[in-house]
Amino acid sequence: MTVYPLVLRVGSLSVTGFGLMMMLAFILAGWAIQLELRRRGLDEEFAADIVIGAVLGGLIGAKLWYVALTGETPFSRGGFVWYGGFVGGVLGVVFNSWRRRVPIPFTAELVAPALTLGYAVGRVGCFLVGDDYGVPSSLPWAVKFPFGLPPTTVANLSQFHVTFPPGMNGSELVAVHPTELYETALMLLATAWLWNHRAHRHAAGWLFGCYLLIAGAERFAIEFLRAKDDRLLHGFTIAQAASVGMMAVGLYVIQRLRTTSAVSDQPSALMKKAADG
Asked: What confidence tens digit (pLDDT) does each residue in 123-173 have?
């Protein structure tokens, strides 16, 4: 199957499939947080605060991480790294939580299912522009990206430590694993699991520890199929190193917050606001 970039044009304005899916990702993540706040009888406007902090912090963090890795100018179009976006988004959400005087563990509890949902939708955007794909594959659902980032040609894939038989034409298109869609499927399953465990009886923040463990494990596994040029020790990538860190923190949080505690304890700041509304 061959996939061409999705671009919507309205006059001189063009919007890529990635941009559309990123917008949808934030909308759905905010909606998920709003539903949880409603279930708890809290101020639903806090969902907008979280999303705004995540958007601004995430975009800045993703761009700065990309600049640090590539040395390119921060004003170049495109060029975002998920782990940088994650760190920046966390800082943005933490700031808004502090500003609203909401306990950070409680905020982390709220955002866990929203993070996996947003990530799943965002990866569809990567697929629609041919970015973050996998290594060559002969499976029936393997995909060719003639205008990907970069196109899946023999020459480009060779730069990602993929070996081909001698004499192959460098401009020949090659079908690859649609790892973006693999991640979408896995993270939708993770969303369902986290959503069904919102009423757990552990301390606030335990669910976020589960998110860190699941997200880290998912990314660590999918990296084995990704076409990457940053493979270091025995083929492992920088993203896998970061994933190990995520899993370690997740396990620590899960273990630390396993003690039974009323996760339904509501932050007074949000309760008061909801009552006033």
From this structure: 999 999 999 999 999 999 999 999 998 999 999 999 988 889 888 999 999
Buried b (16+ CB within 10 A) or exposed e, 158-182: eebebeeeeeeeeeebbbbbbbbbb
Assess contact for 158 and 100: CB atoms under 8 A. Answer: no
Domain-wise residue ranges, the chain: 7-201
DSSP string, 187-199: HHHHHHHHHHTTT
**pTM reported for the whole predicted model:** 0.86
Q: How would you classify residue 11: left for phi > 0, otherwise alpha for psi between -120 and 50, otherwise beta?
A: left
Give the bridge partners for 7, in sequence order: 16
DSSP 219: H
Q: Tell how far CA 124 is from the center of its chain.
A: 11
Taking only the tens place, the pLDDT of each residue in 51-109 is 999 888 888 888 787 777 666 765 555 566 766 787 888 899 999 889 888 999 999 99
CA dist 165 and 59 (Å) reads: 40
